[in-house]
Please model this.
Amino acid sequence: MSEDPARRLSPPEQRAAAEALRAGLALSGLDVGDLWRASIALDQDAVPPAELHRILQSREDAVRLTAHEHDVLAQALNDHFVERGDGHPVRYSTELRYF
Model:
């Protein structure tokens, strides 16, 4: 059974998501604007840039991501890594619960 993409991440998952996205962003050499543009190309309803900044900073006032929103951001980063021949280092939402 697949996970509900509209499910909001739990607080521990949100922290793990922010950590995974920050690490992926650091490894990628992209900036937040690049990540946002790549995510909007995948999903027109992607997380707005200001919210993305709050999420990456693990701010308490950040909206909790849905599983789908996290996966779009992870896919945007992973697409960049695949283009470089580096695989998929950023974890998807189904992998966050294990941390």
Q: What stands out?
A: The chain has a mean pLDDT of 92.
